[in-house]
Specification:
Elements: E1 31-32, E2 45-48, E3 54-60, E4 65-70, E5 81-84, E6 91-100, E7 111-112, E8 119-127, E9 134-141, H1 151-157, E10 166-172, E11 184-186
Parallel strand pairs: 1-7
Antiparallel strand pairs: 2-5, 3-4, 3-10, 4-6, 5-6, 6-8, 8-9, 9-11
Amino acid sequence: MCPMNWDYNEEGECGPKYWPNANGRNQSPINLDLCLMKYNTVEPLKFVNYDVKLTGEIFNNGHSGNIFLQVKPHFENDVPEIRDGGLDQSYRLVQYHFHWGLHDNEGSEHTLAGLHYPAELHIVHEGVTNPNKLAVIGVFFVLGVDDKPLLQECTVLNKLIEPGFLFKFIALHCLLMSSVRKESILHSKRRML
């Protein structure tokens, strides 16, 4: 069995055919079944400071480029966070990362009605009161003609060739741009190995 790691090698001991062996109730990946979804009557999720520019670092962990925020103490009140919407506390943005594949019909970690999307963005927030809790927002990407909303991030990601490579990133822009067509799913707070 795979020693606390995973990869996309179909023939490897850490590949997709062994992922179900984790046997967790909230195990990724999941299929979001439209027939089982119910209308959510809680108040809307509030996005605070998502228009603030921040700096960060992009790190190649061997699977994706993880973008970690660097927050200076005097900018602590400007950190993007989410609150309300049924959450038990406010959650501050700590990092975001992408999942993508070799082809346009694969790439997203999760599926919606059994369909994969070309890419998926995970926006990871840590609890302000209890940092052991996470709130992760998943955004499915579809192909479009305007590729500029994430141009700066994509340009930097092309430089992350070797796992373990770290790249300083300046002027991190707002993640939730109106020009990006998205479907957001708020996942349960959980730590994923």
